[in-house]
Amino acid sequence: MSDFSPPISDIRFLIHDVIGLDTVSRLPPFGETSPDLVDAILEEAGKFAASVLAPLNR
């Protein structure tokens, strides 16, 4: 395991509060996007970055 900890909470803040996920999800191409889906994707991407990508950066 690496010491890398992806900034999931920072990215979550940007997507939800700065970009405005509620507003974006009302647009036709993103109608099926929900906060739960975005959070799940961020969590899994963070796990992938920490366990697979970070060890490659040695």
Structure description:
- This protein has two helices and no strands.
- Helix 1 packs antiparallel against helix 2.
- It is elongated.
- The longest helix has 22 residues.
- Helix content is 67%, strand content 0%.
- The protein has 58 residues and is mainly α.
- The chain has one domain.
Secondary-structure map:
Elements: H1 8-24, H2 35-56
Helix pairs in contact: 1-2
Helix amount: 55-70%
Shape: elongated
How much of the residues is beta strand, in percent?
under 5%
Question: Number of DSSP strands?
Answer: 0
Task: Give the H and E element order.
Answer: HH
Overall SS class: mainly alpha
- Spatial gap, N to C terminus: 12 Å
Attribute tags:
58 residues, single chain, mainly alpha, elongated, 0% strand, 2 helices
